[in-house]
Amino acid sequence: MKIEEIPKVLCIGVSIFSDSLKRQGVEVVDVDWSPPAEIEQDIKDILDKIM
To answer: What is the rounded distance in angstroms from the CA atom of residue 8 to the CA atom of residue 28?
Structure first.
């Protein structure tokens, strides 16, 4: 597959990825996002088990 034009990228909360793309001339829109501080108990239990 050949890309005919430079892609436009929406980057959500991963600045190192965004910076790399910008250095390559890619148009990037950055969204400063992180997961909410409070999480549901079942998700917290799962994360506690894997960490």
So the answer is: 6
Q: How many CB atoms lie within 10 A of CB 22?
A: 14
SS3 11: strand
Q: Which of 23, 27, 21 is nearest to 5 (CA)?
A: 27
* Per-residue pLDDT tens digits for 17-28: 999 999 999 999
Q: What's 42's DSSP letter?
A: H
pTM over 0.85: no
Strand stretches in the chain, DSSP E: 8-12, 27-31
